[in-house]
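Memo to structure team: turn this sequence into structure tokens by end of day. - J.P.
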Amino acid sequence: MNTPNNKNINLMRKLLFSLILSCLSCMTMNAQEVYNSIYEKAKESFENPSSSGIIKELNQFKLDALDYMLLKMREQMPDSSALFLDKEAYALHDFISLYAKSLLEVRNQPKVFAVEIIKIFMDASYSNPLFDDKDLELAHTYYVDKNSMTRFSLDTDWRRAYLAASVQLKKWREKRLQ
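Reply from structure team:
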């Protein structure tokens, strides 16, 4: 029997359910916001005709790494959150920024310094896989390319790699000061 009280309860349930669905759709719209922002900025820089070759190369790597990350996460980690993807994308951005900044700092110094910095970042990327991808040809496309400025593995846990590169860079700088 539907009494006025039961009708109100059913109406409240429907309203609550609608409210929950609305909140979920808003959360979904905000999901991957960082990832999307970094992707779009990299794409703009890459496609900008006035960008230098170095800027294009750094941003091409970002685009490929972000595409790879999204693909592998959907394959191997379908239950992972958008927050995880955002954190990895942000760490990738920080990793590339630190790399570029570090190379700029030694541009007027002996070439061996740049080689050592490149090795620090290559090692940090290679030593911190995220997916343990067996398709090494794909995962190491950039890593094995001796002509690439971004010789990093696409299969990288960018948060761990950033920390590893930061620690090694600090040790490298301290060694230079001795």
